[in-house]
Design goal:
Among the domains are: 4-78, OB fold (Dihydrolipoamide Acetyltransferase, E2P); 154-247, no CATH class. Helix 2 packs antiparallel against helix 3 and helix 2 runs parallel beside helix 4 (132-149). It has eight helices and eight strands. By secondary structure, it is an alpha+beta fold. The strands form two sheets. It has a five-stranded antiparallel β-sheet with strand order 3-2-1-4-5. Strands 7-6-8 form a three-stranded antiparallel β-sheet. It is 40% helix and 23% strand. A hairpin with a 3-residue loop joins strand 2 (21-28) and strand 3. The longest helix has 18 residues, at 132-149. It binds zinc ion (ZN). Residues 159, 161-162, 164, 181-182, 184-185 line the site of zinc ion.
């Protein structure tokens, strides 16, 4: 068929559009993030609707439209049943999908991003008895990796200002520039006019170590880490602050 193309798509969001249609936001393997119209999916007898539920991996056919393109056909390949049946898992999947949708730009294909979220969902899907600690850690892993892929990998080894290796002790994290600042530089910087304390968090030595470990290791190893709740909270706050700062 002319003007049609096939790809694999993770369904991120679906919202009502006009009378019977939906507007579906997907992240595709070949074309990146797209907003597509799914015709008739708000009718009760729609055959398409079930394959275009958010949190479904589907094979879709995209057909060029005058305005927005639309979905010609869709076939669900993975519905992540274990995630859907577990409210705790569903919460983390929802958070990851929302972060991903917010950070990733439209129409920029990137297979690494596609597999980052698809592999992450697969890991969450197969996780046995997910505790909120493991969930928080898994989500922090996802967000830090995503930031890295998008060019915002935090600098955790050298002070952003003086370039010296970060040593244990009193260190800070500069949200604006995305990395650790040593105490000497922080004190120098904080005396300057226009210094914004809202850009700065303190960061513990343990949190520095955890972020380094997350940036360098795969999920399996990360989930075997035993982290004190206090540091997990610090990690989650740091990641959340970074996400809010950039996007
Ligand atoms: Zn420094």
């Amino acid at each position: 068929m002319d003007g049609s193309k096939n790809t694999t798509a993770l369904i991120l969001k679906r919202e009502p559009y006009r009378e019977d249609d939906s507007l579906v936001t997907v992240y595709t393997l070949d074309f990146g993030k797209l907003s597509l119209i799914a015709r008739g999916t708000r009718k009760l007898r729609s055959k398409l609707a079930g394959h275009l539920e958010p949190l479904t991996l589907s094979e879709i056919m995209i057909i060029s439209g005058k305005g927005l393109d639309y979905i010609g056909s869709a076939l669900g390949r993975e519905v992540y049943q274990p995630i859907r049946q577990d409210l705790n898992k569903l919460h983390y999947a929802g958070r990851a999908i929302s972060i991903f949708s917010r950070l990733v730009k439209d129409s920029e294909p990137d297979r690494r991003l596609f597999f980052l979220i698809v592999d992450w969902l697969a890991a969450l899907n197969s996780f046995e008895d997910l505790s909120s600690e493991s969930g928080d850690l898994l989500l922090a892993f996802f967000a830090l990796r995503l930031l890295g892929e998008l060019g915002y990998k935090p600098e955790m080894y050298k002070c952003l200002d003086c370039g010296k290796s970060v040593k244990p002790g009193r260190n800070y994290f500069n949200l604006l520039n995305g990395g650790v600042v040593c105490e000497a530089c922080f004190l120098k910087e904080s005396g300057r006019i226009g210094f914004q304390v809202t850009n700065i968090l303190t960061i513990s030595d343990n949190c520095v170590k955890i972020v380094r470990f997350i940036l360098e290791n795969e999920e399996g190893r990360i989930l075997r880490m035993k982290i004190d709740k206090k540091y997990l909270k610090e990690l989650s706050f740091l990641v959340e602050s970074l996400l809010n700062f950039y996007f």
